[in-house]
Amino acid sequence: MSNKYWIIAAWLLLPAVAQVQVQAQELEAVQLYTQDELLALIQTNSHLKRVRDDDCQLVRDIEARADIMQLPAYQFLYGDMLAYAVCVPRNVERGWDLMLQAAAQGLPEGLEQVGRYYHIGRFVQPDVDKAIVYLREASALGNLKAQLRLAQILVDGHGSPVDFEQSYRWLHHAITADGATHKKIQQLLGQLAQKMPPRVVANAKRPVK
């Protein structure tokens, strides 16, 4: 092929080369999530969507931080990815183990998720007693989702009456800007109050020290 044809071929390939370079730059631009950023994603239940939106580029980094560094937020994230087959082959057993590890390290979101799964029987057999244990721990750490679910379980007749006052206290002092959540809190407080003497309800309403 003459030099003339080589020049023409190279000229025709320029747009494609430029596009590949742009795509490469875009790939390099994806940064691993900070701890605060990841927790914010988890709290809004958008962590799996974010991994997909990042074209699954961070899977190895996420796995390393979950398995090697054993960071609870990343154990939670990678466990969910494995359980729901997001960017990785489905492996529910390994995913569940990572969720348990995150919960064991005291991650409120991990405790809440494990408790919720025991409650509804997702990935494991339903076990209300185990659900209460995890939800109580998450509630004590200020996780509102856990506080709501634990209160509902108590209202439904499960658990121990000794939990009524503390559950009422958590919800009475909960703060939320969401109207639907506020309405749910009011409903649960009314139902819990019916299960306790007035003096116990009054004590639960006292300011938290």
Number of extended strands = 0
The biggest beta sheet is recorded as: none
The portion of residues assigned to helices is: over 70%
> How many helices does DSSP assign?
12
Low-confidence segments, given as residue ranges, are 20-27
Q: What string gives the helices and strands in order?
A: HHHHHHHHHHHH
Radius of gyration: 24 Å
Mean pLDDT metric = 89
First-to-last CA distance: 85 Å
What does the overall shape look like? Answer: elongated
Broad structural category: mainly alpha
Strand content: under 5%
Describe the fold and architecture.
- 31% of the residues are buried.
- The chain has helices at residues 3-29, 35-43, 47-53, 59-67, 72-84, 92-104, 108-120, 128-140, 144-155, 164-172, 179-193, 198-204.
- With 209 residues, it is mainly α.
